[in-house]
Amino acid sequence: MTTAIARSGAGAPDSAARGVEPSPGRPRKRVIFGPGMIWILPAIILVLGMIYFAIGYTGYVSTLDWNGFILSPSESVGAANFVQMFQDDVFWRAIWHTAIFFVVTFAVQTAIGFTFAAIMHSRIRLAPLYKVLIFVPTVLAPASMAPVFRAIFDVEGQFNSILRTVGLGDLAHPWLADPATAMPVVMAITVWQWTGLTFILFYAAMAQIEPEVLEAARIDGASNFRSLVSIVWPMCKGTTIALATLGIIGALKTFDVPYLVTKGGPNHATEFLGTYIYQTMVAEKHFGYAAAISIALLVLAVGGGVLMNLRRRADES
């Protein structure tokens, strides 16, 4: 038997053979540069090189007065593009639109997604079907849905037809051509598209809550709504912060829906940084100014992500 034990432990670490177990409080060393690193190093260099080269080149172009053509002359203007950017009313309107867009869409998506997740956890009939229906808009390409929404909110579209049918014809008007209603329409489309992702993340977070915790709350006399507000919602705080971080970054780089539905109009009513960069670079051929706005967009995105990460760490500590 001793021989068998010795043979079975022949390949074990020396500490185990001597009966000495590793200290549970001693951190294990993480091997970062192992033998396999040489195989993924070319990919790392390529990816990081492309990313940082693009950022550096964009920063260089932001100091030029250039129309984007390789053979055309370019003139160094220093920080003139950034000075123009800070004096540009459209740029500040795009920043304001981004802030309002984030606040509204994040609040609505969080409320709807959290509510749907709580309902799906209440063991209703046909829950799998409802989950699919809620998540389907998230996987649809905006390019395929933009013509549909343009037709729905057209003057003679289905939305105005419904209003006339129910006796609210006085409210019918060109929703996408009115600066007062174009942005709410873009927000509604975004909420429709991304609420499914919010729902999935909240649903997964709720699945991690121990049933004993909710059962103890019921025994103490807490109602379902009270348990939802006092127990479930606080325990989903990490998911909410993650969604807020994604929402900030997503709002800053919003492009597809406003461009495909309204093209940033009417009269810049739905202009975002992404659509303004595209308009400045492609339509106006002002590559230097577009690069300056891109640098501002990068700074805002990184700054927003860092602030949310610091907020999360502060809450955890």
Automatic annotation (TrEMBL):
Keywords: Cell membrane, Membrane, Transmembrane, Transmembrane helix, Transport. SUPFAM superfamilies: MetI-like. Its main location: membrane. The keyword Transmembrane applies. CDD domains: TM_PBP2. It comes from the Bacteria. Coiled coil: none annotated. It is found in: Cell membrane. Pfam families: BPD_transp_1. Residues 95-308 form the ABC transmembrane type-1 domain. InterPro entries: ABC_transporter_permease, MetI-like, MetI-like_sf. GO terms for cellular component: plasma membrane. GO terms for biological process: transmembrane transport. It is a multi-pass membrane protein. The chain crosses the membrane at residues 36-55, 94-120, 132-153, 185-206, 227-252, 287-310. Residues 1-25 are annotated as: Disordered. Belongs to the binding-protein-dependent transport system permease family. This is Carbohydrate ABC transporter membrane protein 1, CUT1 family.
